[in-house]
Amino acid sequence: MHLQKQASVAKFKSKEALIGIVGLGYVGLPLMLRYNAIGFRVLGIDIDSHKVSKLNSGESYIEHIPSSKIAHACKSGFEATVDFSRVSECDALILCVPTPLNKYREPDMSFVINTTDAIKPYLRAGQVISLESTTYPGTTEEELLPRVQEGGLIVGKDIFLVYSPEREDPGNPDFETRTIPKVIGGDTPECLEVGVALYEQAIDKVISVSSTKAAEMTKLLENIHRAVNIGLVNEMKIVADRMGIDIFEVVDAAATKPFGFTAYYPGPGLGGHCIPIDPFYLTWKAREYGLHTRFIELSGEVNQAMPEYVVSKLVDGLNEHGKALKGSKILVLGIAYKKNVDDMRESPSVEIMELLEAKGSCIAYSDPHVPVFPTMREHHFTLSSEALTAENIASYDAVVLATDHDKFDYELIRASARLIVDSRGKYRTAAAHIIKA
How distant, in Å, are the alpha carbons of 101, 293, 309, 378, 398 from that of 106? Predict the structure, then answer.
């Protein structure tokens, strides 16, 4: 029984295995580069032919991943394709596809299910399949396991199935794919053994858990922990503001305690693919067990109300200057979801822009990482980034600091803007024309 397992483990240890990565985005690309860098051949599979042709010509489409790295990977055995039949060539298939929520805040599993159905006809003995997409506990067991076994292959004997959640933090200079510990759970002990052999080549530390469900829940706990704590500090911000206290000063002071406190900072709302979305995977699944996840729901309510809070502070500021929001020219600074990246997913800045537009403002934005407003599933603006000159900044009735990119000249903004609504705590010194939001 163990011959197949031993053969698969040996292939990873000798680096003879071909690594297949399905989904070449913010998670898949760094993983590809890591396996390529340590001498594995990597095949990237994606449904987007535009992405595939860019990669094959050595170009990156993610700002913090330089094209030079992609070009180097292409010269040393990396290839991208839209041809799913090539799945049969791969010894490992790592699925890095989106798991968004639908408009009812329910998990949209279509990308995971469609990808599994697309690879299913080409599966063969000896392969390991790893799902990295964040999802609810039970997904690997309920959705992937039956599909993988449809063709007669037995999971744990012929083919191996694991769940190992991604932990990428784009733009974080302190961590990279190799140095972020990797959690992994297998459908069977044999699956786990093969999965560990796959990942321990590329990642410094691999942490095994007892099941795919435990690994799925681990990822959700990480993100729920952040969402709840950000919700808490956002609520504290509103209380502190009413009391005339600077919440950023308070968090900085509390963070000097060497135990029992982790600093979370308030902002204009939650963004990115993880924190605003993933907690609701557990909320949805918990209903099946007759449970109501109150902390998750409450933090979701608080965080989703933040863009409106920022707009209300802007309304107050304009009012002080005898101006209505309707007809005012507003410049939004930073539309990526966090600083120093070009990732727009779930960005609260975009929600702020939509609220302002709906109330009759003339909207513009400036973001050094997003030169042209991208095509998005939910949001549509035909805008491009404004140059931040003293003259241009002064031409707006107000600027809203939504994302605190390091590339912004904060002194120039302070000196030139008529009114600044600061949702990120960049301006600590009080000034008549700066409003904390």
Answer: 5, 14, 25, 16, 37
Tokens 């950000």 -> residue: 230
Helix axes 306-320, 294-304, angle to 10 degrees: 30
Catalytic residue among 74, 191, 274, 362: 274
- Residue pair 82/115 in contact (Cβ under 8 Å)? The answer is no
Confidence of residue 64 (pLDDT cuts 50, 70, 90): confident
Q: Do 421 and 347 lie in a common domain? A: yes
Read off the pLDDT of residues 278-333 as tens digits, 9 standing for 90 and up. 889 999 999 999 999 999 999 999 999 999 999 999 999 999 999 999 999 999 99
Give the structural domain span for 231.
220-301
Q: What is the structure's pLDDT at 1?
A: 53
Rounded CA gap, 327 and 385, in Å? 20
Question: For this structure, is 274 an active site residue?
Answer: yes
Q: Which phi and psi (to 5°) does residue 3 adopt?
A: -60, -45
Compare 171 and 37 and report the one with higher pLDDT: 37
Spatial neighbors of 260 by CB under 8 A, at least 6 apart, are: none
Is 337 in the same domain as 297?
no
Torsion of CA 166, 196, 23, 180, to 10 degrees: 30
Taking alpha carbons only, the member of 370, 365, 62, 1 closest to residue 189 is 1
Within-domain flag for 139: yes
Q: Which residues contact 25 (CB under 8 A, 6 or more apart)?
A: 62, 96, 98
Strand 206-209's sheet: what is its strand order? 78-81, 41-45, 18-22, 92-95, 128-131, 160-163, 182-186, 206-209
The structure's pTM equals: 0.92
